[in-house]
Amino acid sequence: EPEVTQTPSHQVTQMGQEVILRCVPISNHLYFYWYRQILGQKVEFLVSFYNNEISEKSEIFDDQFSVERPDGSNFTLKIRSTKLEDSAMYFCASIGQGNGYTFGSGTRLTVV
Amino acid sequence: KNEVEQSPQNLTAQEGEFITINCSYSVGISALHWLQQHPGGGIVSLFMLSSGKKKHGRLIATINIQEKHSSLHITASHPRDSAVYICAVIYGGTSYGKLTFGQGTILTVHP
């Protein structure tokens, strides 16, 4: 069964550093999403991406964050100048025609 | 603000019991998802519903659009069903929109 692949599975970074979280969505999917889950809290929407541009973003998704689809397959989330409160599990997801959501296994980001 | 409410927050059952988890939402939706999250953190989609009822193995999901309510049932529960079950909806008219998540129901099934 097709999968959404996320790397790395766990990233530890110093506060103030930049991190890039990577995702390879299912190849024929058209809509891509980033969500995050702070420990013990609900999953929250960050951003959606369609046709090589952002289609919607949440209040959380400020200038610190950016997304790219640099080569037509990878889908990346960049977090500049990380803060302690950015520590969370970050999930990539994609949807194809007539399909439900497929989630990646997540990247656990720890900012120290 | 559109919310998704789940109940109960925690559920403990003995192996073999019939389990029901409930979800309610506030306004019209295009789709509702039931998701399963295991201790490692990964999220798996169980069902996507826009009306009626779906069944997969021992899992049954129903939705009542008029009452803005959905239920997830697990028949003959097993310890391997222990996980967090999350209801999430897409508000608005398109099934490709963002998900709004409930807080999850922590299910523990004892042998």
Write up what this structure looks like.
The complex is a heterodimer of chains A (112) and B (111). With 112 residues, chain A is mainly β. Helix content of chain A is 0%, strand content 52%. In chain A, strands 2, 4, 5, 6, 9, 10 and 11 form a seven-stranded mixed sheet that branches. In chain A, a hairpin with a 6-residue loop joins strand 7 (65-68) and strand 8. Chain B is an all-beta fold. In chain B, strands 2, 4, 5, 9, 10 and 11 form a six-stranded mixed sheet that branches. In chain B, strands 1-3-8-7-6 form a five-stranded antiparallel sheet, with no helix packed on it. Classes of the chains: A mainly beta (112), B mainly beta (111). Chains A and B meet through strand 4, strand 5, strand 9 and strand 10 of A and strand 4, strand 5 and strand 10 of B.
Distance between the terminal alpha carbons of chain A, to the nearest Å? Answer: 36 Å
Let me know the largest β-sheet of chain A.
7 strands, mixed
The profile of the biggest β sheet of chain B is: 6 strands, mixed
E-strand count of chain A: 11
Instruction: Give the termini distance of chain B in whole angstroms.
Output: 41 Å
Largest interface: A-B, 24 and 23 residues
Strand content of chain B: over 45%
Q: Helical segment tally of chain A?
A: 0
The sequence of SSEs of chain A as H and E is EEEEEEEEEEE
Number of helices of chain B: 0
Protein structure class of chain A: mainly beta
Oligomer: heterodimer
Cα shape of chain B: globular
Unreliable stretches covering 5 or more consecutive residues of chain A: none
Q: What is the alpha-carbon Rg of chain B in Å?
A: 13 Å
Judged by helices, strands and strand pairing, the structural class of chain B is mainly beta
Order of helices and strands of chain B: EEEEEEEEEEE
Q: Tell me roughly what share of residues is in helical segments of chain B.
A: under 10%
Which regions of chain B have little confidence, pLDDT < 50, spanning 5+ residues?
none
